[in-house]
Amino acid sequence: MSLSIVYYPHPILRYPSKTIRRVDRELKNVVDEMFDLMYSHNGVGLAANQVDIPLRIFVANPAGKRGEGEELVCINPELNFPKGSEGDREGCLSLPELSGMVKRPERIQLSAYDLAGNPIERKLDGLLSRIVQHEIDHLNGLYFFDRMSDDDRGELTQGLEELESDFRARQASGSIPDNEELVARLAEWETRYA
After folding, report:
1. Residue 33 is part of a domain; what is its CATH number?
2. According to the model, what pLDDT value does residue 1 have?
3. What is the mean pLDDT of residues 80-93?
4. Nearest to 43 by CA among 131, 106, 104
5. Of the four listed, 94, 120, 169, 194, which is most buried by Cβ atoms within 10 Å?
């Protein structure tokens, strides 16, 4: 399998991801490939729907470099007990070269499972808290700009229009399937894992 990052406005990025019911070797290989993609694109987090897989799993590493920092794999993540509020600039691998100021809770409680089925219960703050919230937003069909103020979102208008125009041109040329076909392909993943 060869995964690649999908870009705005690919329909899976608005599609709420499904709860994972089982983990097998193929899903573990997907995780390995997601880390490879994340590092090769200089990212610090990557959600499964960003690689055209409609499942509730993401990978993260605040260091952004293989062999440094802490690699985190979260299956079926949930957030609880948000505390505080802070703003910072965020970017996204599915929105290349675009970033904006996003307010998020400063501290959160993460509940999830790792690849071995072990529960993860952690209180997070700082960059890792922001990354986890960003990736869970992806799994829920949200972009970071959905959390921006209208004024701040306006600075992204031209970049979003360019990404949308490029995506539609690629669909028109046949290099990307139409939206109905893209959404239909998700059923295979859901049948196997959700």
Report:
1. 3.90.45.10
2. 65
3. 96
4. 131
5. 94
